[in-house]
Amino acid sequence: MTDSGNFDAAWLPDAAFRAVGARRSLVRGGPDPLKDTVRAELVGVCARFGGEVVRDGDAAELVLDLTGEDSSDEGYTLERRDGVTTVTASGGRGLLYGLFHVVRLGEGAFAGDLASRTHRPALATRMLDHWDNVAVHPVMGQVERGYAGGSLFWADGVARGDLARVRAYGRLLAACGINAVAVNNVNVHATEARLLTDRIGDVAAIAGALRPYGVRTHLSVSFAAPILLGGLPTADPLDPAVRAWWAATTARVYEAVPDFGGYVVKADSEGQPGPFAYGRSHADGANMLAAALEPHGGTVHWRAFVYDHRQDWRDRSTDRARAAYDHFTPLDGEFADNAVLQVKHGPMDFQVREPVSPLIGAMPDTRLAVELQVTQEYTGQQKHACWLGPMWSEVLRFRPDGEVPAGRLADGLVAVPNAGDDRFWTGHPLAQANLYTFGRLAWDPAADPRSVLDEWIALTHPGSPGRLAEGLHAVLDGSWGTYEKYTAPLGVGFMVQPGHHYGPSVDGYEYSPWGTYHFADRDGVGVDRSVATGTGYAGQYAEPWAKLYESPGTCPDELLLFFHHVPYGHVLHSGKTVIQHIYDTHFEGVEEAEEARRVWAGLANLVEPERHARVAERFEEQLRSAREWRDQINSYFLRKSGVPDAHGRTIH
Ligand code: BDP
After folding, report:
1. What class, spelled out in words, does domain 484-527+565-641 have in CATH?
2. Which residue among 128, 460, 464, 535 has its CA within the 20 to 30 Å range from the CA of 246?
3. Glycosyl hydrolase family 67 catalytic domain: from which residue to which, for each copy (predicted)?
4. Is residue 184 a contact partner of residue 132, using CB atoms and an 8 Å limit?
């Protein structure tokens, strides 16, 4: 489905608008830029499919009615009565989201009656943090952890001159409910730092391209900006000159971008500057920026990814998993109202399996956003098919206090996206499903990810036979589980090649200071994070989790090696020993990848050739890599443990 010149239409191919485009539509209400967007969408699709945008007073089958000017209200009411489908919204965003809802329903939006229902996002902030560098970074390239070509926003050290594609991106984001984008890397290098000051015009240009689709622009800033850009001798958050610099600089940002969303900050983390240098707390740091943003309605997203990456294993206090909770829980209640603490979903770093971060739910008096990684840094780098909807859904449904799901404790969901200037947006065309699923789960964290996948399939391949949908489900539904099977076992994580993080290296990080260990020896494997004998991390959870994770007898199998160091003969709840589980899952993972490749090959005549070929080629690499993982992990553990495979399979 390639409708738009040199890039793929993803989940908005023309054909997805057929039902809407064939109708007589009316757009009603006072002046509003997003209402104009809605109208322009309809005019475009009507020209294609024979419908018409009529004037008020004429009969219409679809009415989009903007009843107010409340730009903060993103909700809309949808109903169908007496042959007329109506979307009513009090703000422009709601009207736009309502239009996309009608598009998703297709012909279903114009048949029978639809009882009136109001739809509203569960989370106010549904945001993407692009790790895009303006200038190509010598190690990380243009997009840090990017697997889909160059940046959508930046090329040759400046904002792209032609922003048509950025606009198209905003449109895709609106269609899955995303309303905010940070346009530069959280690791803020020298060129990127200047976006805040003399390069703000570049940001304004991008903001202008995203604005028609209700997407607000944010910026990652360096905590040291007053020194780097302002010529001040310090960045101390309590220094009046520093505060005045931030206030004045922020006022100028708003002159250039009146609806600017705010700042994203990675401080005292992996070499980024922060308040610790001045003996100040992270609340002091965040609140200074919050104060600068407050008069303009902006928000600071302060990341909780704070740990010491130069600290080798010493004792329980150096367990990296503990770091975010240890740093931030003492600060609960100290953060300003427009400061949001942005917490990675797990305590480590976007592994294929981690427990949910105990920080979520532990700071009741702090606004919180949960951060996910859509870019597949640790999940196959968009060479492997790995649909992460089920993982995210598990995170969002987890009840940190035993009662309220994580998805309701947060007021924002943020992700590091997977899109770039690749013609399929995401390198692996099936990885588009991850971006779409993220947006829809941010809108409704309780949604069933499989139904979200159904939506994505239907929009992306409109009118295609059920066999294609079945095939896509077969290839994607279990793909996260497949990836988990052939990579690091039972929640232990990492075992990846250092630096780029692709492919296996069991001991790659075992003796490094980054804090990511598995402690495998001849007797056993896993990290003891119990309170009784380990790092005490399990005690950061509220009940029932603290108790459940504390003992290897009750800890869920999939997290066993995250929480416990056990002998290879330890029997899992599944009835298998740990060592046999490792062997079996690694053989199974490869078999499942082979099966997915076979299913995909069978869909050849149902998918656009270029898209089919791109996915097919990636399956070859996935299989090669899966076999490599299987062989390295299995032979490593065979040699460490000396325990043979119970089924006598050959282990290379
Ligand atoms: C890690 C990435 C690194 C990021 C860091 C972060 O490897 O490139 O800078 O997360 O979240 O996963 O800041």
Report:
1. alpha beta
2. 128
3. 117-399
4. yes
**Closest residue CA from atom 13 of ligand 1:** 186
Which pTM value belongs to this model? Answer: 0.98
367: three-class secondary structure by DSSP: strand
pLDDT band at 465 (very low <50, low <70, confident <90, very high): confident
For 195-244, the pLDDT digits (tens) are: 999 999 999 999 999 999 999 999 999 999 999 999 999 999 999 999 99
Cβ atoms of 432 and 424 within 8 Å: the answer is yes
109: three-class secondary structure by DSSP: helix
Report how far ligand 1's centroid is from the alpha carbon of 608 (Å).
Answer: 35
Compute the distance from residue 271 Cα to the ligand 1 centre, in Å.
Answer: 11
- Our answer on whether the CB atom of 268 is closer than 6 Å to any ligand 1 atom is no
**Predicted ipTM?**
0.99
b/e code 589-614 from CB counts within 10 Å (16+ = b) = bbebbeebbebbeebeeebeeebbeb
Containing 159, the helix (H) or strand (E) segment is: strand 158-159
Encoded tokens for 534: 């380990």
For the record, the structure tokens of 37 come out as 């967007």
Rounded CA gap, 83 and 502, in Å?
54
Domain boundaries, the chain: 14-119, 128-165+179-194+213-431, 484-527+565-641
Q: Catalytic residue at 65?
A: no
Which run of H or of E encompasses 406?
helix 406-409
Of 3.30.379.10, 1.10.3210.10, 3.90.320.10, 3.40.50.720, the CATH number of 14-119 is 3.30.379.10
Say if residue 315 is exposed, middle or buried (CB neighbours under 10 Å; 0-12, 13-18, 19+).
exposed
Question: Is 128-165+179-194+213-431 in CATH node 3.30.9.100?
Answer: no
Cβ–ligand 1 contact at 350 (below 6 Å): yes
Kindly give the distance from the C-alpha atom of residue 416 to the centroid of ligand 1, in angstroms, as a whole number: 10
For the Cβ of 377 lying below 6 angstroms from any atom of ligand 1, the answer is: yes
Check if 349 has its Cβ closer than 6 Å to any atom of ligand 1: yes
What pLDDT does 5 receive?
62
In short, whether 266's Cβ falls inside 6 Å of ligand 1 is yes
**In whole angstroms, what is the distance from residue 567 CA to residue 170 CA?**
51
- Written in H, E and C, the secondary structure of 487-514 is CCCCCCCCCECCCCCCCECCCCCCCCCC
- The yes-or-no answer on residue 558 being catalytic is no
Confidence category of residue 316, pLDDT binned at 50, 70, 90: confident
* Atom nearest to 266 CA in ligand 1: 13
Strand partners of residue 181 = 128, 217
- Asked if residue 593 lies in contact with residue 600, where contact means CB atoms within 8 angstroms, the answer is no
CB of 597 sitting under 6 A from ligand 1: no
Is 594 tagged catalytic?
no
The per-residue pLDDT for range 553-588, each reduced to its tens digit, is: 999 999 999 999 999 999 999 999 999 999 999 999
Is 76 a pocket residue for ligand 1 (Cβ < 6 Å)?
A: no
Query: Which of 70, 270, 308, 591 is labelled catalytic?
Result: 270
**Which positions ≥6 away from 180 have C-beta within 8 Å?**
125, 126, 127, 128, 215, 216, 217, 218, 261
